[in-house]
Amino acid sequence: MSVLLRLTSALSSRKIGTDRFGNAYYESKADFRGYGRKRRWVLFNGAAEATKVPPEWHGWLHHTAPQPMAETKRHAWMLDHQPNQTGTANAYRPAGHDYAGGRRAVTTGDYEAWTPGT
User: Who contacts 93 (Cβ-Cβ below 8 Å, separation ≥6)?
Assistant: First the structure.
């Protein structure tokens, strides 16, 4: 994180809060360029990755909600938020993908290839 960005955030804005991942959320003190609303941004804890913003803060960040939502009670069926894994070693690769060996299970006989004119 840039020292200049942290300094600017401290001087020209107010800190709204932090999420469970350690991301800090800020709102400008003055309206943003006459749009009638304040500018909002996040300082990420670690690498800047948009999928690290949890749903509780996403609505507030995009001016959909006036206040960040309170974290809801966790139900047994709810999964923990995971950042986007695309381009990493943890990315999903289906059977038959070149990086997963390039082979997939043989079809069971219910597949018939389409040929033009039939």
Answer: 99, 100
